[in-house]
Amino acid sequence: MRPHMKPVLLVSECLAGTRCRYDGSSAEDPFVRRIMPFCEVRTACPETGIGLGVPRPPIRLVTDGSGGALLVQPSTGMDLTAAMSAFCRQVLSDPGSLDGAVLKSRSPSCGISDARVFSGADGPARAGTGPGIFGRAVLEAMGGRPVIHEGRLSNLRLREHFMTSLFTLARFRSAERECSERRSLGPLVSFHASAKLLLSAYNREEGRRMGRLVADGGPGAESAYRAALVRALARPLRTGRAVDALMHAFGYFKRDLSSAEKALFLDSLEDFGAGRTAMGIPGALIRSWIVRFGTAYLDDQIIFDPYPPALAGTEDSARGEAPPR
User: Which residues contact 275 (CB under 8 A, 6 or more apart)?
Assistant: First the structure.
């Protein structure tokens, strides 16, 4: 198994443990703290970034009547929308350098989908929910690269998808840099070979197009491949296709395994297919057989070693959006 490249990860500063929330508290998240040593972390607190103090009067999103939202501070009557937009432009001036982001849920600045939007600066009437000003800017700047809030990280399958996408994009960034340094598409060819089963599980059609990009090898192949990789990993893998990919790998070992080992794998695959567990469980069995039998082709497949093993876990809140089957 190859060493894992460090992804460049944008994190809401309060999730990293800084006491920068409106009430002077942090929102330190156990998994964010756990993943940080494996990443190059860039933290941001949009609210202190525009000069608001700690603690501070709360801010809120208010509908502008045309489908958008303003960011206001009801107690002072301040409209902070322009200041927050300027902060977004500053922090996201080089979005291509980021591999992913973890932002604070329900925040009027950092929320990515569930921030409360009010009908007016005063009063309890709500107009719905949506992204915060900074959250929206991050989503737009990332262009499909993984962005998640900490609540979704408590869902095992969503967390697994996020980490797989994050570390795969970092691995590709390393291959892209090697292509530039060596003036050769060799590293891209090697990356695609190692991503074949992963792409089969995520987006088979996009994977085929990526294969043609590698084969043609024309000018701009790396940048076109990057865009295709982001598209391929934009949604959680489809369970049925992932089962097919795992069964393909299982075929390499069928003649060497005992009946009990085969049964154990097939039971774990059934649990995965039924949504009772994540792909890492049957994947770990495959990985153990790769080590045991020295299967070179599978040893290089990202799908069996997508992120550092220290980040693997089975804790699951069962909350969050269900991945597609």
Answer: 157, 239, 322, 325
Please tell me whether residues 163 and 101 are part of one structural domain: no
**Beta carbons of 279 and 160 less than 8 angstroms apart:** yes
Helices (H) and strands (E) in the chain, counts: 13, 9
Q: Compute the distance between CA of residue 303 and CA of residue 221 in angstroms, rounded to an integer.
A: 23
Angle (deg, nearest 10), helices 204-216 and 221-232: 170
**DSSP state letter for 110:** T
In the structure, what pLDDT confidence band is assigned to residue 313 with cuts at 50, 70 and 90? confident
pLDDT of residue 323: 47
Closest CA to 179 of 224, 143, 144, 146: 224
Residue 182 neighbours by CB distance under 10 Å: 10
Strand partners, 115: 130
CA 14/CA 28 separation, integer angstroms: 6
The per-residue pLDDT for range 150-170, each reduced to its tens digit, is 999 999 889 999 999 999 999
Q: Give residue for tokens 């059934």.
A: 270
**Total domain count for the chain?**
2
Q: Answer yes or no: do 105 and 233 share one domain.
A: no
Q: Quick one: 244 and 111 in the same domain?
A: no
Shared domain for 129 and 79, answered yes or no, is yes
Tokens of 230: 């982001």
Model confidence over 184-214: pLDDT tens digits?
999 999 999 999 999 999 999 999 999 999 9
